[in-house]
Amino acid sequence: MRLHAAAVAVIAAAVAGPPPLASAFRTAAPVAPALRLLSPRLVTKVGSPVPPVADAARRAKSLPPLRMAAAETGGATSGGGTASIPNEIFNLVKSIVGAGVLSLPAGIAAFGNAPSAILPATLLIGVIGFFSAYGFSLIGRVCSYTGGQSYRGAWSGSVGDSTSWIPAVTCTFKTCFAVLSYSMILADTTRALLMTAGVETTRNLALLGITGTTLLPLCLLKNLSSLAPFSLLGIAGMFYTTVAMALRYLGGAYKLGTPAVKGSKAAAVPAGKYLADVAANFQPKFGDLGASAALSPSVFILISMLSTAYMAHFNAPKFFVELKDNTIKRYNTVVGTSFGISVLLFALVGSLGFLTFGSASSGLILNNYSGKDALMSLSRVAVAVSIVFSFPLAFVGARDGWLDLLKVPVEKRTNSVLNKTTVAILSGITLLASQLTELAFIMSLAGATLGNALIYVYPAVMFRSAVKGMGEKASKGLKREVPFAMFSAGLGVVMGCIGAKMAFGLL
Question: Are 167 and 37 in contact (CB under 8 A)?
Fold first, then answer.
């Protein structure tokens, strides 16, 4: 079965991202849900104490009308953050642009197979980017109104502490999906690199090898600070890959050849330099489904993938808290600039990959390139190294999230308990990764359900509750904005329902 489309958000997401720190060189890996503060207990564990939170009404009463008015116009600050705007922009772009971007060409291929399909796809990348940025902004603003310092804290301070388990559960499962996506990407990338080196192996053997020799030892580490320097590899690798894809497309290294037609003056067009080295199912394939094909329900596969690709919202509270002079205006400058850069990179990678391979675009676009292509092999190395050192950070987030949900006290989390839990969860993830080859399904399903909830629905619900809790102190501007926020939430629900249905069609 062809690896059709995909992030982690993750890689997504992904694949998924590090918390902003005062210096860009003290950040975690490009997708680090372990530091995304799934719960107050986890926050305390990683060294960022979270103050007790109360209900929205009590918090609203404690905020002077002047502060709320100033916060709305960008004139009030809270906290003692030291990160500059350029540092935060760098960190947020690094959080957003992860391995999940390599799935976008396949997202376009899910509904179109003609070059003009990139037109509606680029428009969608921009629109979804706007709404994702708006949700990210809402979370920071809720933190400003309530004093929350984590996603769960923002929910507790606005909606209420009794239901704060809802975003905690969502964050934990989203992190698990990110780890699963990582395993699937590493299985394909490791096998491709070994075959480039002349070592014949299967996908499952490659997965077991990288898991047993590298991932397990890293996940068993009790101090992950030594992995921080490798965080720069993620964004550097993505920029390099974008340039490499552009060079290969513009140079025609993978173009289809056309024979000379008898009786025609048209000469034969030779095939691209590396085309013969590409498996038949990964060779370029084009048809007549262009821009108009975006009207088909299959476009929701791309939309769901984008919800995973833009996922960095776990960290929105930390970006707000750690920003120096964190007014809403300065915070929104960080958000707008970062998401704008990410939209540009997403559009470039998605378009370049699709224009090169069309409907044959793999869920991990690097799979389409020849193993003899040194330029793209270097991309595989960069992506693999980045994911290897991101994996344990994401994994710890998933493991500690489960321990929190199971209400295992911190004092009972001995090395023995942590080691056994690590082996059990990693074994389950590896088993799933060995059986699942459709990265498209994982990325689109996670985006349609968990991603849409965290990006669109929860921020709007928290914002509405925070404004409601302010009572008469809430300005007319905030009250007028609530319907738009809820429209964003409704849009997320609709996209999620249709996207989830389309995701199952990929199996």
Answer: no
Residues 354 and 107: their CA atoms lie apart, in Å, by 9
Looking at residue 270, its pLDDT comes to: 83
Confirm if 93 and 335 have CB atoms less than 8 A apart. Answer: no
The DSSP-derived string for 267-324 is PPBPPPTTGGGS-GGGS-B--S--GGGGGSTTHHHHHHHHHHHT--GGGHHHHHHHBT
Average the pLDDT over each of 27-31, 210-214, 274-278, 315-319 and give the range with the smallest value. 27-31
| Structure-token pair, residue 187 | 């299985």
Taking only the tens place, the pLDDT of each residue in 232-257 is: 777 788 889 999 999 999 999 999 87
Residue 158, number of CB atoms within 10 A of its CB: 27
Task: Compute how many other C-beta atoms are within 10 angstroms of the C-beta atom of residue 353.
Answer: 31
HSE-up (13 A, CA, CB side) for residue 116: 8
Tell me which DSSP letter residue 213 carries: I
Q: Which residue has the higher pLDDT, 195 or 130?
A: 130
Task: Report the distance separating Cα 503 and Cα 305, nearest Å.
Answer: 10
